[in-house]
Structures are given as structure tokens and as C-alpha cells.
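C-alpha cells incoming
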């Protein structure tokens, strides 16, 4: 027989000994082992306890007889022995030659019950399977104690039957033996039903998950109101499905947006090449090569940005972290912006040092500065503030601020807001998304807000900034303006 079979119509392998059978078998075996060990321990302890009780009673009786002989002499001891007989207990008094001087019952007067001869004050114990002299085949425990009377050593013998104790142990043994299969059956049935009930919930969850495909990620599993691990499993499964659905939607949107962004430069390049190839004079090529070069540069820019975002999303954005002076990074980018911008650039840079990747930080600053310059009316203002725990960069422009409802969405890929922030203004919708990803990789944050004067503001915060108290490091409060 195959060790594995298929669930009909689903192709899911299931072992012949599934969780339910294994759990039931394990529970039964564990309980059986516990019952065997516990039962044996109980029987041994019970037997020892009963025998110890009989021995204690025999010792007490022998000690009392010896005390009577010591106090009242041989006659007093004989009288006490003849009147002290109890059911299942036999008492003898033996002289030094082993003859029976006195006995509690007539049947014990014929022969000594034991060959033990202890010294005065000494007690010896012996277990015998039977006492033929009494005509009794029960098991006995014999206690012998030595005692002196007028210089003569006598032996007090007390024999008690232990058959009652043995019968008690045997009865308990049969009860344990008979109850064990019943208890094992009850345990097996209870575990089988309990595990089966739990697995029905798991099977229901598994079946619901199996029906969810890549084309239908909006499905969710039913959460049982059990307040246990099954409820937690269902909730975790739904949370995972939500993440998968979000990731799938994000991937689909990313592919769609990337295709849309690349379609335009590709179409321009394709048409330009065809037109230029159809003109043997080469004049069309001379006229269009600058356009084609621009579209090529745009495609390269888009592809590089897409690769950067893909690495950031996969956790593969590599950072070469060193000590970086934020004011130096900003100053370099401000110099670049001043050479290309038609707006006035005002900067107030405080010395601030952090640990990060200078090249990636420059990319963040450049993207945000280009965005500010693109939508500014006349002025772009840059400031760096250094505090004990963090360094903050604020970049303001006097253009319209980002609407409050879009201040988080603007950092998503390919997001453009209204007409004033359209593709015609030169943006690809990737710059701010890259800035947010690089800031997250530096454990920092970036957010859009409204400047105090009513313009647009972007604020970048870098935690754990180093103090800039080194007098030889920077000139405090450097101001660059235009």
C-alpha cells in the first residue's frame, strides 16, 4: 500500500497516519505508560504499607508480652499470652530449649513457630509462606523478641498472617488491570473527537485558502470564534492574504505605470528611427538626433529610477555608510541648482554630520530640490538645523502646497497630482518615491507640509545626528543666498 494517498480532486498529499491518528495513538501510549508505572508503584507501596502495618502490630505485641514477663515474671507473662490471642495472630513463649511454655491458642502449643532465638532485648523478623504446625497455609510474618526471667532467656514469638494484605494487593491489582483498558479507550475516544473537531476547522481554512488563486486574492478565510490558536491561525492567514493582495496590486500598478511611462519614449524613438532611415539625405537625422537623444536620456533616467525602487522594495538597496556632512551635500546640490534655475535660491546651512551614503543622500536632495524648483514661482529656500538627537533639512518653495489629502500619496511611485504637477512639467513621478525609499534606508523620514508663508515645504529628518561642536570642523551658521 502506498504510504501517501491523494485527496480526491485536490492533489494534496495526506499520509495514512495523519495528525488525528498520531495524536490519538500518542495519547493512548502515554496514558498507558503512565498507568503501568503508576499502577506498579501503587501496588508496591500498598504492599509495603500493609506489611509494615502488620509488622508494627506484631512488634508491639511481642514488646508488650516481654514487658509483662519482665514486670510480673513468667506466670504473669503466661497469663497475658493465654488471654491475648486475636484472629490471625498467634503468640508463643519458648524456653531456651525451644519448648513451648505458653501459647495463645492450643494449636500453637505443639511445636515452635520459628527457629529464631534472639538475645534479650533483641527482635528478629522472619517471613514464612505457611505454618504447617497450625494447619494454616497462609503467609505469615514472625516476630521473635528475647527476654530474661530469673536469669533464664525466653523467646516471645508473635506470628501474624499477611494473607489479608496479599489478598488486598491482589484485589487492587485486578481493579487496576480491569480499569486500564477502559480508561485507555475513553482517552482514545476523547482525543480522537477533540483532535477531529480541531482539524475540521483547519481543513475548512485549508479548503478556503486552496480556492484562492492568483486571479482572486480578495478572498478571506472564515475566522472561528474559538479564542485559541485556530482563531489566531485564521487571522494570520487573512493578514497574509491582505499583504499578498496589496503586493499583487502594487506590482500590477507598477508594471502598468512603468509600461505607460516607457511607451512614449519608445514610440518616439521608433518613429524617429524609421523616419530618419527613410531619408537617404541624412537631413532628417540631423534634425531629429537631439530629440532622439533626449528621449534616450529620458528612458535611461526612468530605467535607473525603476531599478533603484525595485532594489529598495526588495531590501537590496546597498548603502556605503560613512560620516557625511549634510551641509556639504546640500551646498554641492545648491551650486548645481543655481547654475540651472531661473529662481532665487536662499540657503541657511548649519553644520550637521550623520552616518549615511553620501551618493544616495545627494540623490534625495537633488530629487527634492528639482521638485521644488519645478513648481516654485520665484524662490526656493533651503535650511539645515542640527539638534542633539536629529538633523533636519527643510526645502520650501513659494508654489502651491501639496494638498493635505495627498501628502502621503505623493511619495508613491508614478503619482502626479493636479495639472500643475503633470508630466509636461518634466517629472516622471519617481523622484519623491526614491527619496522616501532612501530616507527609510537611512532610518530617516520625509514628509510634505505647508510652509509658514503658505508655500510648499518638504522636511527630511535624520535621527541620531552627531553633534557639530568641533570648533575646527565648520563655520557655524553659513548662509548662502541669491
Amino acid at each position: 500500500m502506498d504510504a501517501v494517498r491523494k485527496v480526491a480532486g485536490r492533489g494534496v498529499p495526506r499520509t495514512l497516519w495523519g495528525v488525528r491518528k498520531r495524536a490519538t495513538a500518542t495519547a493512548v501510549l502515554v496514558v498507558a505508560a503512565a498507568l503501568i508505572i503508576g499502577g506498579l508503584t501503587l501496588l508496591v507501596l500498598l504492599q509495603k504499607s500493609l506489611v509494615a502495618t502488620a509488622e508494627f502490630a506484631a512488634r508491639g505485641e511481642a514488646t508488650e508480652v516481654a514487658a509483662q514477663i519482665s514486670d510480673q515474671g513468667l506466670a504473669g507473662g503466661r497469663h497475658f499470652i493465654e488471654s491475648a490471642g486475636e484472629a490471625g495472630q498467634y503468640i508463643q513463649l519458648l524456653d531456651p530449649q525451644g519448648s513451648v511454655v505458653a501459647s495463645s491458642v492450643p494449636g500453637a502449643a505443639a511445636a515452635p513457630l520459628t527457629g529464631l532465638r534472639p538475645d534479650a532485648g533483641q527482635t528478629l523478623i522472619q517471613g514464612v509462606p505457611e505454618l504447617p504446625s497450625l494447619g494454616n497455609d497462609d503467609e505469615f510474618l514472625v516476630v521473635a523478641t528475647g527476654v530474661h526471667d530469673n536469669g533464664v532467656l525466653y523467646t516471645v514469638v508473635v506470628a501474624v498472617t499477611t494473607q489479608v494484605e496479599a489478598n488486598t494487593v491482589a484485589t487492587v491489582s485486578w481493579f487496576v488491570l480491569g480499569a486500564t483498558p477502559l480508561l485507555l479507550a475513553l482517552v482514545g475516544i476523547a482525543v480522537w473527537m477533540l483532535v477531529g473537531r480541531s482539524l475540521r476547522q483547519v481543513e475548512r481554512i485549508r479548503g478556503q485558502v486552496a480556492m484562492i488563486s492568483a486571479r482572486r486574492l480578495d478572498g478571506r478565510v472564515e475566522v472561528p470564534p474559538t479564542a485559541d490558536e485556530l482563531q489566531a491561525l485564521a487571522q494570520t492567514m487573512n493578514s497574509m492574504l491582505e499583504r499578498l493582495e496589496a503586493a499583487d496590486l502594487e506590482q500590477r500598478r507598477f508594471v502598468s505605470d512603468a509600461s505607460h511611462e516607457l511607451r512614449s519614449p519608445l514610440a518616439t524613438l521608433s518613429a524617429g528611427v524609421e523616419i530618419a532611415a527613410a531619408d537617404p539625405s541624412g537631413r532628417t537625422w540631423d534634425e531629429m538626433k537631439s530629440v532622439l537623444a533626449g528621449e534616450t536620456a529620458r528612458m535611461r533616467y526612468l530605467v535607473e529610477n525603476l531599478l533603484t525602487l525595485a532594489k529598495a522594495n526588495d531590501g537590496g538597496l546597498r548603502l556605503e555608510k560613512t560620516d557625511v556632512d549634510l551641509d556639504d551635500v546640500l551646498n554641492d546640490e545648491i551650486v548645481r541648482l543655481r547654475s540651472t534655475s531661473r529662481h532665487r535660491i536662499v540657503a541657511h546651512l548649519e553644520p550637521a554630520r550623520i552616518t549615511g551614503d553620501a551618493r544616495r543622500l545627494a540623490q534625495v536632495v537633488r530629487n527634492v530640490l528639482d521638485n521644488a524648483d519645478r513648481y516654485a514661482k520665484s524662490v526656493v529656500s533651503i535650511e539645515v538645523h542640527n539638534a542633539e538627537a536629529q538633523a533636519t533639512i527643510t526645502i520650501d518653495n513659494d508654489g502651491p502646497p501639496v494638498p493635505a489629502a495627498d501628502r502621503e500619496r505623493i511619495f508613491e511611485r508614478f503619482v502626479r497630482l493636479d495639472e500643475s504637477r503633470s508630466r509636461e512639467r518634466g517629472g516622471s513621478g519617481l523622484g519623491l518615491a526614491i527619496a522616501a525609499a532612501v530616507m527609510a534606508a537611512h532610518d530617516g523620514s520625509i514628509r510634505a507640509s505647508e510652509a509658514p508663508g503658505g508655500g510648499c515645504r518638504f522636511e527630511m529628518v535624520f535621527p541620531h545626528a552627531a553633534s557639530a561642536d568641533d570648533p575646527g570642523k565648520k563655520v557655524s551658521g553659513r548662509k548662502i543666498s541669491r
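note: The helical segments are 19-83, 163-210, 229-278, 283-313, 326-340, 358-375, 431-441.
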